[in-house]
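FAQ

Q: What does a record look like?
A: Structure on top, sequence underneath. For example:
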């Protein structure tokens, strides 16, 4: 009862503060002030670094933790008792060539604030001797962890409460080695509202069942990179650093296939506005503004979050925040929904929500905290780019040597952003020790962090005693907060306790997002071809909410019943001007045709060639699609610009396989067919011959891409590698043609 009264008090306090905020006098103007075109690189203390940060009036930073408590932090998450787990990549880019990067000396620490002042004052090394840990996800009293180069996911537990993990179990096993560039491996795990756990990359999602993760394979590979977030309604927001895309796959859930629009964010949102010269931008001078030497386009977006807290100005709720660590900024986007389609607009004109004049400031992750405030992880590291782009002869390698950036390591900070009109809720959560009946009440908390964790814990406990209270909470008459009703519905779904009475009540709810949730949850019944549910869903085909109609089409389109297909057909016909609904249906139909064609096409290949192309498809979608597009037709950066040339229909791809192999081994720089692209094609020669052969075989012989040429064998790659010198700076097309002329006169190539 004490916890319940504290919750009521917190809600009341938050409401009073919101009113106070509206009464605050007009703030001074928010202006971007460029500090230095060629900034110094010497590390600063946390206090000095905080003074270098520009935020809108009223906002400021609090230091939560810094070195030596944390070093090289990359990700963090709180458990149900408010203990903060921080992943440290202690071997990341100690120099320009990544010396010792794969040594097992990285760690995960557990931090605690024992006196409630918002600053961590106690820590333990929870797990030691890790290989570049990538993700941390608390699930009950377990911590799920994934390391670099493997796809296993482990669970760690502290059974004697000494702050150190003493139990280790594997919860998802995949023996396939995942050795690829650090940037192109999974960079996050998120237990979403729909009770699926999503990674940032690859075509998997997981359900937590009895202490294990059960994987489900998706149609398309998700190609987000570092960071993943969701809004109040479970909509996911990915991003891609390679091609400079700050928000991707935001229109529909991954289970329904990949879907993006060129205008889903404004062009301005992909333009950072640093306040110091960005001399270490990978693109060199071409990536910088001539007037102030600052980064002119997005190049490394990561660690995004939708703010869902209750202790900052109300207009931050639902906004999208994404760090750009090369530019030392965090952008803020306003998210809107127009007829079911999501748009993100830059919150400011020619300035960013947060910008630092500290050369070593590297924001790479953001979170909503238990206290209702905004948190950011600052890796505080001199080098922020992988060695494939910073090696000998590269632009970055020269900058690192000149500035001594490799010396700036072993540090790290965690900050929270606060506002003068709001008091953080420093009450320490105690969810792991509270009864399930209390957790149900937290589903109505004004801070999304509390709602999410209460739902997760109720499902992990599988406590069936709370089902009557949850069902009562799904009624608008009993619970006026529609967000609480949505969480109650999904918690019932996670407990396998959704019945038709509750479902049909939710389908008739006055709030569109509750009706959409009910349609989404009805897929559990659709999997069993329940005719009563299908008939009930068909009555929503004229729902006034586009969100409901779109979800209805998505949920029904894979159901083969005549009634379901008739409803989908009616929805498509009745909504000719709904761009999302129409485009989603078109891409779905095209994907089904492509999959069928690919299946038929593979029958004509030998088993060995089929295996080669299949392996290449996985690699391409995990890595190459980031720049070349999932269909090989290129990716748009806005304004018609693409990060890399298209591969579909390319005579160069379908033609000389030796030339193509050389290109992949050494990388490519300079213009391609008269067009200059913003990035270089990195060398892939560090991969083995079969890896190279499989990628080339896929892009040359894929129905999805539309090319139809012979495969490339590992033996052919071996021969090309033996006769091609290493060119660290990458090849140009002119060099490739010169090599081709020499090849015609050299009999070694025929061996």
């Amino acid at each position: 009862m004490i916890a319940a009264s504290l919750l009521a008090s917190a809600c009341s306090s938050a409401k009073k503060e919101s009113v106070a905020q509206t009464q605050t006098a007009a703030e001074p103007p928010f202006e971007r002030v460029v500090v230095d075109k060629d900034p110094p690189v010497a590390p600063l203390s946390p206090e000095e670094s905080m003074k270098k940060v520009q935020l809108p009036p009223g906002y400021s930073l609090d230091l939560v933790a810094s070195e030596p408590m944390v070093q090289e932090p990359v990700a963090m998450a709180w458990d149900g008792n408010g203990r903060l787990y921080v992943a440290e990549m202690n071997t990341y880019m100690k120099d320009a060539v990544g010396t010792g990067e794969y040594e097992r000396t990285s760690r995960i620490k557990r931090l605690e604030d024992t006196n409630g002042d918002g600053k961590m004052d106690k820590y333990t090394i929870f797990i030691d001797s890790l290989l570049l840990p990538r993700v941390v996800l608390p699930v009950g009293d377990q911590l799920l962890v994934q390391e670099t180069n493997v796809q296993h996911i482990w669970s760690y537990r502290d059974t004697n409460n000494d702050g150190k993990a003493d139990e280790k179990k594997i919860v998802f096993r995949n023996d396939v080695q995942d050795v690829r560039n650090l940037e192109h491996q999974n960079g996050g795990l998120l237990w979403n509202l729909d009770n699926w756990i999503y990674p940032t990359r690859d075509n998997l999602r997981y359900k937590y069942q009895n202490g294990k993760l059960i994987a489900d394979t998706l149609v398309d590979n998700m190609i987000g990179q570092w960071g993943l977030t969701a809004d109040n309604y479970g909509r996911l927001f990915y991003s891609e650093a390679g091609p400079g895309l700050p928000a991707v796959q935001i229109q529909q859930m991954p289970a329904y296939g990949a879907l993006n629009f060129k205008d889903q964010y404004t062009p301005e949102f992909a333009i950072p506005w640093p306040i110091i010269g960005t001399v270490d931008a990978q693109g060199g001078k071409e990536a910088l503004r001539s007037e102030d030497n600052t980064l002119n386009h997005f190049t490394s977006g990561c660690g995004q979050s939708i703010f869902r807290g209750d202790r900052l100005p109300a207009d931050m709720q639902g906004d999208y925040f994404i760090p750009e660590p090369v530019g030392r900024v965090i952008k803020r986007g306003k998210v809107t929904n127009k007829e079911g389609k999501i748009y993100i607009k830059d919150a400011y004109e020619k300035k960013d929500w947060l910008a630092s004049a500290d050369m070593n400031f590297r924001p790479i992750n953001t979170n909503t905290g238990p206290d209702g405030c905004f948190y950011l992880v600052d890796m505080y590291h001199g080098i922020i780019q992988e060695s494939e782009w910073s090696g000998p002869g590269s632009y970055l390698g020269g900058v690192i040597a000149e500035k001594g950036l490799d010396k700036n390591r072993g540090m790290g900070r965690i900050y929270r952003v606060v506002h003068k009109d709001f008091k953080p809720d420093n009450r320490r959560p105690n969810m792991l020790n509270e009864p399930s009946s209390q957790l149900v009440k937290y589903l109505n908390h004004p801070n999304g962090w509390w709602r999410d964790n209460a739902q997760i814990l109720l499902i992990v406990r599988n406590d069936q005693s709370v089902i009557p209270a949850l069902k009562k909470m799904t009624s608008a008459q009993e619970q006026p907060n529609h967000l609480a009703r949505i969480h109650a519905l999904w918690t019932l779904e996670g407990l396998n306790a959704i019945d038709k009475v509750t479902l049909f009540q939710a389908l008739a709810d006055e709030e569109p997002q509750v009706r959409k949730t009910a349609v989404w949850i009805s897929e559990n019944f659709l999997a069993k071809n329940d005719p009563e549910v299908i008939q009930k869903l068909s009555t929503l085909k004229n729902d006034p909410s586009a969100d409901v109609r779109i979800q209805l089409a998505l949920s029904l389109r894979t159901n083969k019943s005549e009634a379901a297909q008739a409803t989908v057909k009616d929805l498509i016909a009745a909504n000719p001007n709904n761009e999302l609904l129409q485009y989603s249906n078109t891409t779905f139909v095209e994907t089904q045709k492509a999959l069928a064609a690919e299946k038929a096409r593979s029958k004509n290949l030998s088993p060995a060639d089929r295996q080669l192309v299949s392996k290449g498809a996985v690699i391409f979608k995990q890595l190459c699609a980031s720049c070349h597009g999932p269909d090989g037709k290129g990716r748009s950066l806005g304004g018609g610009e693409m990060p890399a040339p298209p591969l579909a229909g390319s005579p160069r791809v379908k033609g000389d396989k030796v030339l193509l192999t050389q290109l992949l081994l050494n990388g490519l720089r300079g213009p391609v067919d008269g067009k200059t692209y913003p990035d270089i094609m990195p060398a892939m020669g560090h991969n083995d011959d079969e890896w190279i052969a499989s990628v080339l075989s896929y892009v040359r012989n894929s129905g999805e891409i539309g090319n139809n040429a012979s495969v490339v064998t590992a033996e052919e790659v071996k021969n090309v590698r033996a006769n091609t010198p290493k060119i660290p700076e990458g090849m140009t097309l002119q060099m490739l043609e010169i090599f081709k002329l020499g090849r015609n006169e050299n009999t070694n190539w025929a061996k």
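Q: Is there anything notable about this one?
A: Residues 579-602 form the longest helix (24 residues).
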